[in-house]
Every structure is written in structure tokens, then in C-alpha cells.
Amino acid sequence: MKLSDLVKKLFGKQAALDLNDPEQLALVKKVYGTYNAYKHIYHKMYRYYKGDTDAMRKYKFVTERSNLKINVNYIKKFIKEEVSYTVGNAITYESRSDNENIVKDIEYYTAHWDELHDSDLMKYLLIFTKVYEIYYVDENADFCSKIIKPTEGYAYTDASGKALFFIHAFKNDFETTVTYIDVYTADYIYHFDSKFNQIAVPTENMFGEVPVSIGKLTLEEYHDSLYNDIKGLQDAFETNLSDIGNEISDFRNAYLIFTGCTVDSNKIPEMKQLGVLEAKNKDSTIQWLIKNINDTFIQNTLDRYIDTMYQIACHINHNESMVSNLSGIALRSRLIALENKCELEEKAHKNIVKNRLRFLCLYLNIKKNKGYDYKDIKALYTPNIPIDDLSTAQMLSQTPEGVISKDTARGLFSFINNKVAEAEKVKKEEAESLPHDNLDNLVNGNG
Q1: How much is the pTM?
Q2: Where are the domains of the chain?
Q3: Among candidates 222, 153, 244, 205, which has minimal Cα distance to 19?
Q4: In whole angstroms, what is the distance from residue 247 CA to residue 342 CA?
Q5: I want to staple 66 with a disulfide (CB 3.0 to 4.6 A). Which of 207, 249, 269, 312 is the partner?
Q6: Consecutive 10-residue averages of pLDDT for the chain (447 residues)
Q7: Residue 145 bridge partners (DSSP)
């Protein structure tokens, strides 16, 4: 039976998988095979991010010659810049209905999370163009999340993109050769070994649906990745840079040519020590045999590789010298292509955060009886770029009163990360600055 027919048959008669049923377990096994078929692509993408490129792996060695391998990782450089630009500043939240409690609870119930969680999530999204985030409740009853790379997991979805089940394949720290498989369904989390034998009692899933967010940067997935765009340029640059480095190193092994004379090999060490060469014939010549390398051609080729990589990645080279009196507007205009690219990446990241907030609200409604609606929450991203706060302040001072709210105005400043908390600080300071009369003195007429 085809995989699509099996899915239609199974999900047509019930909403969630029961992996105690051999027929339904067979479906999961087929999907696990699909995951393994694509996993090698994502492994290679991750290799390139770590600098383990084909240029370094397949660099041709020449016997008895210099064989330096020079690794210059532009893929990592570009991805780190984009991560820093988009989520270098912490994500903040606001309520569309001005519910301050929901914003406070988001910060409180995620306070135990790793500070690098969102930046790591964005990093893997840019490396693979796909990433997963699973949600669970730990032993302390805290809402938690774990990032799953596409090398470690696979979500099987329906036509609308909703996850029907999620497969997480992993190895523990003690048995690095053994693979374990967790399968997340709407009702339970099943625990298997690599041969799909159950090794533990299924864990109940409190959320009532597959607790996973699927992050997609683009519908074309790895075909529309930074890796796919500049892989060839990265390999060519490293290969040519290694070649020229070895050419320079090989000058140490240059050959000395004696023409019209013979040299006693026993005297070579003595001549080398004294720095003197003796030729008995006046027409004899002694010279080095060296290569005539066109350094301009080589430098132009390397520069062309670098420039093309920057252009395709939509980045600018900050090492290039710029005019000293370049205005802030002119500097910002140079970043327009990168800003446009990062805005699209930000939207992909925000889709994950939206679903995360939905599961957080589910957790708070079930465990804390809060009654929150995730649609009331708005995630705010602040680009990690220099912002002219002085110009912002001057603009606001010249804006007629009643045009811009104080809440919106606070959000324009780069140093204010939480508008709600900042507003409360202002209220507290205003209350403390008011005069406090002694009521006893007022009653006795002494006030």
C-alpha cells in the first residue's frame, strides 16, 4: 500500500495514531525511512556551517610538496550576522487588549529558558531552512521547549500543514552507538529503540495535539538555502586560497640550478654554511628555479569570489573603506538588501513563536486556569542595528500632542525592551514624586 493511501485510510477513521496497532506502526516506520533518506542532505548543510567543506575534504595532496589547507568559513559568517541582526535583541511581547497580566506571565513562565534559545532557533532555521521546536512539561511542572534539527527529527503533516505525528531520533550520552526514537502523537509520546520495539510505557501528552512547531524559511527548503547558493563559491575560494598558500610555501623548496659547472656534493653543506658558491668556469651560471606567479591575477580571482559571495548573500563587506563623511541615511541604504532578507527570516521565526505562544497558553489554561487567548499576544522584534535615539527624541518632541501614544513612543527607543515594564516604572516614579500629607496633621488643623 502506498504511503498516501495508508495515511488516508488511518486518519480517515480516527484523529490520532495508536502505535500499539501494527498497521499504524507500519506507517510510522515508512515515514522514518523517508526521514533517513533526506537526513544526509541536512548533515552536509551542517558540515558546511561548521567549516567541514568538500574543498577541505577533497583537497588534492602533492607528494613531497606543501599541502596546507586553508579554511575560510563565509557561510557561518553570514548566518551569524543575520542571527545577530534579527534576534540579537530579545523578543518582547504586548497584548492587543492591553492585558498586562498575559505579558508578565509570558516572561515569568519562560524565565528559566536558555537565553540563547531564540538565537539558536534562528541559527538552525537559516542553516537548514527548516527546524522543529517541541514542547513539554518537566519534572518541576515548568513549560519547556527543545530545538530539534531536521537531522534529528521529522514531522509528518497533512495538507494544511498540521502535524499528524512527530519522530525524534536521538542518542544518549552513554550509548552513542544506540539510536532511540520518540514518536509524538496527539494523545501519547511513544518510546522505541531503533527497531521500533517499545522500551517504556507511553507518556501521556497533556496538550491534546502533537506538541511541535514546524519552522520553514521557504517552501523550496534546502534548494533555497544559503548553503545551496554559495556552496560552489565557498569551495572554489578555499581551494584557490589553499593553492596559492602552498605555492608560497613551496618557495622554501625551490631548486638551485648550476649551468656549465659541477659541484661536489660533499661540499654543499660547507657552501651553505659559508654562504659562498664556487664555480670554476667563468661562463657558468648559478640561479634559483622559481615560478613566475601573477599575483594580480590571483588576487583579482579571490576578490571576485568574495564579492560574489557577499552579493548573493545580500551582505555588505564592513572591511571595505568608506567615505568619512558618509551620512547615517547613506549607511542605512547600504543595508537595504540585508534588511529585506532579514525581515523575511524574522517572519519565519515569528511563525514558530506564534505557535509556541499557543502551546504556552494551553499550558497556562490547563495548569493555572488562566483563560488566555494566544491571539491576544503580539511578538515584537527589534533589529540589532545602531539606532539614532537622539533623532527619535527630537522627532517626538516636534510631533503634536495626541498623534503618537506614549506606549508607541516608548517602543521607538532602542534601549527600552519592555514597554509594559517601562510604563509601570514611570507610574511608580510619578506616584513617589507626589507630596504625601500626614492625615493626622490635617485632622488637627496643623497641615
Answers
A1: 0.81
A2: 255-289, 390-447
A3: 205
A4: 40
A5: 249
A6: 52 63 88 92 96 90 78 95 92 89 93 96 97 95 96 92 93 81 94 92 93 95 94 93 82 74 79 76 78 80 92 85 59 80 95 97 94 94 76 83 81 73 80 66 54
A7: 135
User: Hey, what amino acid is at 30?
Assistant: K
48 grid coordinates: 558546511
Helical pair 226-249 and 22-49, crossing angle rounded to 10 deg: 40
C-alpha cell at 24: 499504524
